[in-house]
Design a protein that fits this description.
Chain B: Residues 66-281 form the ABC transmembrane type-1 domain. The structure holds two protein chains of two kinds. Chain A is mainly α. Helix content of chain A is 67%, strand content 0%. The radius of gyration of chain A is 24 Å and the shape is globular. By secondary structure, chain B is mostly helical. In chain B, helix 7 (97-108) crosses helix 10 (151-179). Classes of the chains: A mainly alpha, B mainly alpha.
């Protein structure tokens, strides 16, 4: 009797979870499916689930636009250079934050903590980038976000889990802090480096806001700005939107082409995702409030 | 000091970053008390005291922004906050390991997509002409619905997007908390004749209560921070009146229109109010006997 009731609850639970999972996957499947439909035969009002006239023309069209490649270049630059710099700043500074008997440690820690709660704000940050002469430069999408308190504290708590006897042994052997960091700490930090490389890379790949803040030249638009232009700004039933009135494309691209662009921008994320998921779950828990 | 000379060297990149990109902009806050004119510069511009703040509060822009921000926050608190808890409880009940793993992999995925992609999905599903939903409605002879340009659906779309994107990711912390529950408690409950739902109610939920409470308190500290990127992408003239929030307003006034002093004043108001809220929230979480954030 009791067994039977449990089974019943299980079935409902499995069905509900399957439906939830499908709702997560359906947008991908739909977008992928339409992107593979022949743009010439595709009628705007048409309701389709599977491609009728299979064709790669939409992809050929998007891949043939110079704007896409400009944006790919810009995004690859900020993703690769940004990830390396983010890692460098985060790994080094987080290590400093573990040395709580070092003069100045308190000041450094409070500097980071304060940033968790108070920011100068959007416009002062914007004016700073302008003053530094970084307008319209891809560095403006990298430098203002080189690290953040959350990452610093997560990496710090990882370092703290490394037995301090290792450092002490190396110290007695005559190594200085710099060598210890390079030869002892960093090699042990591979899992955290892996997690944060992916974490920073995804964040930079997804850069959008600073793109519209700082980049006026469409040749330097990151991919997300390209995509928003392609799909959101050119959406026909909304009339004029607050942003980009002057750079609006004349002809809204066909739906299959929009979907193909969307797929292309998503592909790298979907490719790294399987690797990233495992690391990330751990990263989140490491840094989470101690519940 | 000598002992740590190499540590100071390691600190240089981080310190430079914080000084230049986090602390130097603090200077900009002073512009909130000026009538800043870029041509005359910081030293040449006139000081006006709290004039910019007075303008903001007395010309009627403040209340709609506060109302919109709070509405979106409260909806998220009521709907997006409990969603991962419920999903975590559901996932926890799954006994088939493979099914559990697949479900988790799938529900985490949207978290990694940018807001541009999530909003693009929304457009491709809900817009009037090309939206999947409207095509489906039309194909069965029903009237099309202007989801994106009708104030009726705006909040629903925002909350729906937030749940879709973050619900799976949010389960991680609750699943970890559930994993920490002592199995003996479940055995004892089984002996007492508790069914599955009763075990969830009397064992699992109380066990993760402190996690829920602390996250909830921290969220209330963040109540003025609604998704800037998400809302900016979703805003259009038709829903402007109910969708404009502090950040989108500051963006329009400051970066698009160049009203620097005024927009910095508005931003400063938001930062200070946020600081008070977070500090209050942290105080509360300590009061509840939790560790707090700092």
């Amino acid at each position: 009797m009791k067994q039977g009731r449990l089974q019943y609850g299980d079935i409902i639970n499995y069905i509900a979870l399957t439906l939830i999972s499908l709702s997560m996957l359906f947008p991908f499947l739909y977008v992928f499916s339409v992107s593979l439909t022949d743009p010439a035969t595709y009628v705007q009002g048409e309701f389709i689930l599977l491609p009728k006239e299979f064709s790669l023309d939409s992809y050929k069209f998007v891949l043939g636009t110079g704007q896409l490649w400009n944006s790919v270049k810009a995004t690859l630059f900020i993703t690769v250079v940004g990830t390396v710099l983010n890692l460098f700043v985060t790994m080094t500074f987080a290590y400093v934050l573990t040395k709580n008997d070092m003069p100045g440690w308190k000041l450094f820690t409070y500097m980071v903590l304060f940033m968790m709660f108070f920011h100068a704000g959007m416009v002062p940050g914007y004016l700073l980038v302008r003053e530094l002469g970084l307008m319209n430069s891809l560095w403006a999408l990298i430098l203002p976000g080189l690290t953040n308190p959350w990452s610093l504290f997560v990496v710090r708590s990882f370092y703290r889990s490394i037995p301090s006897s290792l450092e002490e042994a190396a110290y007695i052997d005559g190594a200085n802090d710099l060598t210890i960091f390079q030869k002892v700490i960093l090699p042990l930090s591979k899992p955290v480096i892996a997690a944060f490389s992916l974490f920073f890379a995804v964040g930079l790949w997804n850069t959008y806001l600073s793109g519209i803040f700082y980049i006026q030249d469409p040749k330097k638009w990151p991919l997300q700005v390209f995509l928003s232009q392609m799909i959101i700004e050119s959406n026909t039933d909304l009339g004029s939107s607050a942003n980009f009135d002057d750079v609006r494309q004349v002809q809204p691209p066909s739906e299959t082409i929009k979907m193909a662009s969307l797929v292309l921008v998503m592909i790298p994320i979907l490719l790294v995702y399987p690797f990233l998921q495992k690391h990330f779950a751990k990263g989140v828990l490491l840094g989470s409030v101690k519940g | 000091m000598i002992r740590y000379r190499w540590m100071y060297l390691l600190a240089v990149p981080g310190l430079l970053y914080f000084l230049i990109f986090q602390y130097a902009p603090m200077w900009g806050i002073l512009l909130a008390f000026q009538d800043y004119n870029p041509y005359r510069g910081f030293w040449g511009s006139e000081w006006v005291g709290f004039e910019n703040f007075r303008t903001f509060f007395s010309y009627g822009d403040f209340w709609p922004l506060l109302r919109n921000t709070l509405t979106i926050s409260v909806l998220n608190l009521l709907l997006s906050f409990p969603a991962p808890i419920i999903l975590a409880l559901m996932i926890n009940e799954v006994r088939t390991e493979a099914f559990k793993r697949i479900t988790q992999t799938v529900v985490y995925l949207p978290h990694f997509l940018s807001w541009v992609i999530v909003v693009s999905f929304t457009f491709l599903f809900f817009s009037l002409d090309i939206g999947f939903v409207n095509k489906a409605l039309a194909s069965v002879g029903l009237e099309k619905i202007p989801f994106l340009s009708d104030t009726l659906y705006f909040y629903g779309l925002l909350v729906g997007q937030t749940i879709w994107k973050e619900v799976g990711w949010g389960t991680i912390i609750f699943l970890a908390a559930i994993a920490g529950v002592d199995p003996q408690l479940y055995e004892a409950a089984t002996v007492d004749g508790a069914g599955r739902l009763r075990k969830i109610w009397h064992v699992t939920l109380p066990a993760i209560r402190s996690t829920i409470v602390i996250l909830l308190i921290l969220r209330t500290g963040d109540i003025l921070n609604v998704g800037f990127e998400q809302i900016l992408l979703m805003l259009n003239p038709m829903v402007q009146s109910i969708g404009d929030v502090f950040d989108t307003y500051v963006y329009r006034q400051g970066i698009l229109s160049g009203n620097f002093s005024y927009s910095i004043a508005v931003g400063l108001f938001k930062s200070v109010a946020g600081l008070i809220l977070v500090a209050g929230a942290n105080f509360l979480s300590k009061k509840f006997g939790e560790e707090g954030l700092y």
